[in-house]
Amino acid sequence: MVAVEVTRFDTAPPENTDIYSIPKSIPREIKLYLHESPYIDISNSKLKKTAKTLLSNDGNDWQKVEKILRYVRDNVKYREAYKEKPIRGATAALDTGEGDCEDMSALFIALCRLNGIPARTVRVPDHCWAEFYLEDETKSGYWFPAQVAGTEPLGCLTDHRMILQKGDAFRIPESGRETSRYVKELFTGKVKESGADPIHQFIREEIR
After folding, report:
1. What is the pLDDT of residue 146?
2. Which sign does the torsion angle of CA 7, 106, 131, 202 carry?
3. Is residue 198 a part of any domain in this protein?
4. 195 in a structural domain
5. Cys-Cys with 11: which of 15, 38, 64, 157 at CB 3.0–4.6 Å?
6. Please, what sign has the CA dihedral across residues 88, 89, 92, 98?
7. Per-residue confidence (pLDDT) for residue 63, from 0 to 100
């Protein structure tokens, strides 16, 4: 067992959003977050059409991301995940007008990516939100939070749960060539012919 002490703080939006812009030259390691991911199907024609309607020359680039956030919140009603299909995705959220944190975040991320804004999923226990990437006037890049399934302003985060993963397109050995939205817990090992099957248990709990 491993115990980890994590210190988390509230995140507030930057005081001056005018200095942040969508990068014109995106670093190689960031380009991944402009591509399609499981349940973030940016090749969908309806998503493309919706993303195009959100294009605007008004305001700064931060305000363009705010417009995407408002669109998702105004057009998708929060609904708990279905037991038989816990993740529905960006297109389903757009088609049905409802979704949980996974679906709303997926739609926000898809619309950001289709507008040239790198974005990704942040996973915490029993929840997720989105992050988007902008750069300042010195061309330094920053990731900012977007609590899509909520009411917090863009760039504001008061959720202190421990971050488990950032990203939504992972290649893991046990899945072959398949891309996975999340990396799942995995236990492997060799058992002798005469040995018993190993007993294992994954433990993840918060100690206050």
Report:
1. 98
2. positive
3. no
4. no
5. 157
6. positive
7. 96
pTM: 0.89
Q: What is the pLDDT of residue 85?
A: 67
The label of the residue with tokens 């290649």 reads: 171
For the segment 113-119, the average pLDDT, to the nearest whole number, is 97
Please give the angle made by the CA atoms of 135, 36 and 158, to the nearest 5 degrees.
50
Q: Are strands 77-78 and 98-99 parallel, antiparallel or unpaired?
A: parallel
CA separation for the pair 143, 125 (Å, rounded): 20
Per the structure, the count of domains in the chain is 1
The alpha helices in 17-170, defined as continuous H runs, are 28-31, 45-53, 61-75, 90-96, 101-114
Q: What six digits make up the tokens of 158? A: 């008061």
Domain range enclosing 100: 17-180
Mean pLDDT on 54-61: 87
CA atoms within 13 A on the CB side of 24: 3
- Report, as an integer, the average pLDDT of 86-108: 94
Q: Is residue 200 situated within a structural domain?
A: no
Position 136 confidence tier, pLDDT thresholds 50, 70, 90: very high
Output the six-digit token pair for 33. 């977050």
